[in-house]
Amino acid sequence: MSKKDTKKEILNEVIKGYRGVIKDRYQHKTLAKKYDLPDFFNEERITLFREYFLDYIYPPPAKRAELDEAFESLDNYIKQPSKLLRILMDSGRLIFKYGRHLPKILKTGLSALRSFRTANAFEQKLVTKAIELDLPTPYDTSEINTLIKALPKSDLEEFIDSSQALFETLHDRVLVKKILEIVEFLIAKMKQRPAVYTAVEIRGLEIGRDIIKNGDLLFDQLPKNGQQQLFEMVIKLEREVLEELFTEE
User: Fold this and answer.
1) Does the pLDDT at position 8 exceed 80?
2) Does residue 1 form part of some domain?
3) Residue 4 predicted with pLDDT over 60
4) Does residue 2 sit within a domain?
5) In a 10 Å sphere around its CB, with 0-12 CB exposed, 13-18 middle and 19+ buried, how is residue 33 labelled?
6) Which residues 6+ apart lie within 8 Å of 224 measured at CB?
7) 237 located within any domain
8) Is there a contact between 105 and 84 (Cβ–Cβ < 8 Å)?
């Protein structure tokens, strides 16, 4: 690592390196060697799935400024969903439709959005290790794995758990439709009150909606049994990678 490298430059290289890891891991030919893939897990579907994660969970450095700002504003609502729940009280239709389940649906939707923030925190930990180890940039798969193994295993387990929470939400086809309906209502109401809600706060919810909406579209393209298989395969793969990394001598 050059002494001229700033923390931001190292972060950008970590982001690029980890995106490379994801691109390599989720190639159809790579997965076909490890698993007996059903016919509907063809190369096109694997590519769509991979690009979804690269667009929304591990976006490139150029997209990070807007996403970081938006999610910082959304963090307040993720931690205190009651702030958004107060807006929902204006909708007699939603209250009548979902009743006492409304707070739980909202909270589940916001929790699903933690994946991006957990990924962000994970990357920051890799940056810290890169600085500690004085690891020169750029970082390929080998260097990224070196940084990951320098972290406590629990950090990576937390990272995988957050992805699993997002998948569990997307896999519940009925629940995800409810979440999207509620978030669309919140966005519309907040736009009507520009003196109360900032453009950044609204953008945070819009990005959160897009993460869930586009993930929902991916699942919609799969047969019902395929949705469960995809969910199980991804989590199994991530946990196998984790175990392989921490059992290497």
Assistant:
1) yes
2) no
3) no
4) no
5) exposed
6) none
7) yes
8) no
Q: Is pLDDT at 144 greater than 90 in this prediction? A: yes
Q: CB of 10 within 8 A of CB of 130?
A: yes
- Smallest Cα–Cα separation from 204: which of 52, 50, 101, 79? 79
Q: How many whole angstroms separate alpha carbon 141 and alpha carbon 206?
A: 33
In terms of residue numbers, what domain contains 44? 7-247
Question: Is residue 201 a part of any domain in this protein?
Answer: yes
Q: What's the rounded mean pLDDT across residues 200-209?
A: 86
Token reading at 115: 């994946």
Burial of 31 (0-12, 13-18, 19+ CB in 10 A): middle
% of the chain at pLDDT higher than 90:
22
> Is 50:26 a contact under the CB 8 Å cutoff?
yes
How many separate domains does the chain show? 1
The pLDDT assigned to 79 comes to: 75
Residue 2 has pLDDT above 70, yes or no: no
Q: Cα dist. 138→9, 20, 110, 142 in Å?
A: 10, 11, 34, 11
Which of 148, 150, 132 has the alpha carbon at shortest distance from 7?
132
Q: Among residues 180, 166, 61, which one has the least CA distance to residue 115?
A: 166
Average pLDDT over every residue of 10-23: 94
